[in-house]
Amino acid sequence: MLSYRHSFHAGNHADVLKHTVQSLIISSLNEKDKPYLYLDTHAGAGRYQLSGEHAERTGEYLEGIARIWQQDNIPEELAAYIGVVKNLNPGGKLRYYPGSPLIARFLLRECDRLQLTELHSSDFPLLRNEFLKDDRARTERTDGYQQLKSKLPPPSRRGLILIDPPYEMKSDYQDVVKSIQEGYKRFGTGVFALWYPVVLRQQIKRMCNELEATGIRRILQIELAVRPDSDQRGMTASGMIVINPPWKLEQQMKNVLPWLHKVLVPAGTGHTKVSWIVPE
Ligand code: SAM
After folding, report:
1. Do residues 33 and 72 lie in contact, with contact meaning Cβ atoms separated by under 8 Å?
2. Do β-strands 159-163 and 37-40 pair in parallel, antiparallel, or remain unpaired?
3. How far apart are alpha carbons 67 and 70 in whole angstroms?
4. What separation in Å is there between the alpha carbon of 43 and the centre of ligand 1?
5. How do residues 83-95 score in pLDDT, each as one tens digit?
6. Quick check: CB of 44 below 6 Å from ligand 1?
7. Does some domain include residue 1?
8. Sheet with 219-225, edge to edge strand ranges
9. Pocket flag, ligand 1, residue 9 (CB < 6 Å)
10. Do 145 and 41 meet the contact criterion of CB atoms below 8 Å apart?
């Protein structure tokens, strides 16, 4: 039984980091004419109403996207991402937040393909409805991890695989590594982007060690913390681990993370990080 609903968290600081990285990778893939596959293993509902009961109850977006989307000195690294947010909110009031599938829908080209999977009985129909009229997209209510076996390699031999589980179950920390291994075996040139929360630092250290032990190379880690690590309940930071990142991504994130951290965390607590778990 799945209890996690992303609508409580949409647009929070972790989404800002994840969707910044996602949009930069997509923009890099778009620089070559050749089509590619965007595979979103844990897609969520696609669109979130920020004035809805769920988002209002936690107010997480107020310390996330609400702090940045109307700043007048937005760095160029955020242009594509914020462009999508503005597109969804043409009146200038922040009412909707785009999930990862919608960000991909806006940024992908006519020749590219989207494969989106979501298991939740309430979120899947919302996702399916969003994409009914998009011929590029296929939505399925099925296990996202299995997609790394069944959908790779894509016929186009280019692709971004976003893996964004809720980490509701402790086994997710191991499952992500196993499924990346499976996916990489089939599609070693793909870009794999894995989101993670920092709740207990030990779990993330273990996950990174397990990734390193797979023998996969070119693994970049990007992290934004809003508070120092803690053994209390709650997420203090989040990160993205990117395998085969586009060559510009490391520098782009080094450029933009200090600005993001300053605007998202006025108190100045926490940290940012861009470093290689395994280099070239
Ligand atoms: N990627 C989305 C975004 O950035 O907008 C958010 C996804 S949310 C963090 C995780 C989603 O995974 C939830 O909607 C949950 O229902 C779904 N989920 C959980 N286990 C799954 C599984 N094994 N396969 C596919 N989806 C799953």
Report:
1. no
2. parallel
3. 8
4. 5
5. 999 999 999 999 9
6. yes
7. no
8. 137-140, 113-117, 37-40, 159-163, 191-198, 237-243, 219-225, 272-278
9. no
10. yes
